Fold this sequence. Notes:
Helices cover 65% and strands 0% of the residues. The chain has 171 residues and is mainly alpha-helical.
Amino acid sequence: xxxxxxVGHVLGLLYFMLPAYAANxxxxxxxxxxGRNPPxxxxxxxxxxxxxxxxxxxxxxxxxxALQAWLALPGTVVDDANWPWLGLGFGIGSMGADALKSLxxxxxxxxxxxxxxxxxxxxxxxGALLCVAPLVRVPLLDVGIILLMxxxxxxxxxxxxxxxxxxxxxx
Length: 171
């Protein structure tokens, strides 16, 4: 594979994962919601994992997937028939995996807000890939590329979000 084909492939993988990235990035904005926003389960997950944040993540993934279906770019896996299921898979997988990671952190007595590398960076991507696996076959090498890109990108985006005051921690 020549370098331009490799770059195109990586960009295609980023495009494929865009709904999961949108889900993960949108959940912190739930803190700006002025209505009722109860924790999903404060004892098990902490007070920062909220119903609105989970729902916002699922909504963001579904909207992005709908836009991808509407654009119908050649060579992509999103089409008119499968976009709702892919959107829900990306959203529920992303948010569900993030919640499971929070549960694991609590069980391991890791202080809330403390970094847990690499799980803080890739949990949502793993969950999304698992949930869309029945609909889309992703080769193992591509899974590795996705996780590496996600790890690096998440570190960069979280630090930027922290500096902008969107997130309370840089991880």
